[in-house]
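Sorry, any thoughts here?
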Amino acid sequence: MIKAGIIGSTGYAGGELVRILSAHKEAEVKWYGSRSYIDQNYAKVYRNMFQIVDAVCMDDNMEQLAEQVDVIFTATPQGLCASLVNEDILSKVKIIDLSADFRIRDVSVYEQWYGIEHKSPRFIGEAVYGLCEVNREEIKKARLVANPGCYTTCSILTAYPLAKEGLIDMNTLIIDAKSGTSGAGRGAKVPNLFCEVNENMKAYGVASHRHTPEIEEQLGYASGEKVLLNFTPHLVPMNRGILATEYAALKREVSYEEVKAVYDQYYAGEQFVRVLDRDECPETKWVEGSNYVDVNFKIDSRTGRIIMMGAIDNLVKGAAGQAVQNMNLMFGLKESEGLELVPMFP
C-alpha cells in the first residue's frame, strides 16, 4: 500500500485528491497537510468526508513528511514546493507538485510570469512534465513530477496531434477557454463571490495569463518550433469544468477523415481521451467529476482554418486526477487505478 501525504489538502485540488485516494485500492493518505487548519479535524473542513476521513490536519513540514510516506502531493500556491524541496527529501520520497514551480524549463520565464524568485532551479531540469498521454515513459522513472495546469492540460491535448503532425500553422493558433470558479481556488476573494460570478461571464488575464508560456512551451516541443499564441481565459458561473475552443490556419487542404485518423493515431489507445463522433462538440457536463478529456474538431473550408475543441473537469484531469494518474505510473500501478470515475450527470 502506497503511503501518500498531501500538503495543501484543504484547497479544492487537495480536497479532490483526498476524494480520489479514499477509493484507491493501492494507496492511502497518511498526512493531511493544511497550514490554515492545523489540528482541526479534516472532516470538519470538508463535511463530505464525515465518517470517511478520521484525521486531523497537519502542517507543511516536508522534511518530517518525507520520513513517513512514499509520495508527497503539493497542492499549494506557486513557490511553496520549490522552497521546501531538497536533495535529501527527493532521495527518500517521490513528489508530485500541482503548482507551476517545475513546469517551465526556463527559470527566467517562470519568474517573469509568476513574479517570484524560484527557490530551487537546480531541480527544474530533472522534473518531468506530468502529461501522461505525452510523457508516460519519462514519468515512470521520475522522482519529481510537475503536474500540468488545468487550462494547459485541456489546451495542449486538444491541439497536440495536429501540432505534432505539422498540420496547423502554429503562429496562427488562438485559444479561447472558459473555466468554472473552482479554478480560482478556495480562498475568499471578492471577484469570486456568488453575486459577482452568478449571471455573469468575463475574460481575465487577457494577453497575460500565466498558463500561456506553459502551453507555448509544450506545444513547441510537439511541433518542433517556437510557438507564440494568444490565450484568453474566461470565468463562467459554474463550479467545475474547462472548455477550450482553439483556432488555427491549416497548412494545406485536409479532409475530415484525414484529421480524424490523426486524432485516432494519438488517442485511440488512451483510456482518458475520448475523440467524439463527427459534428459532436465537447461539453463540460459530459466530463464532470471524471478524468476524461473529450476532444473534437471542425474544418472550416471557407476560411482554411480548423476549430479544435476540448473539455475537462479542471479539478480531476486538470489537477487531482492527473496527479493520481502520475502516481500510478511512478509506482508501476495500473494507470487508471482510482480514476475510473463515470462522469456525473446531471
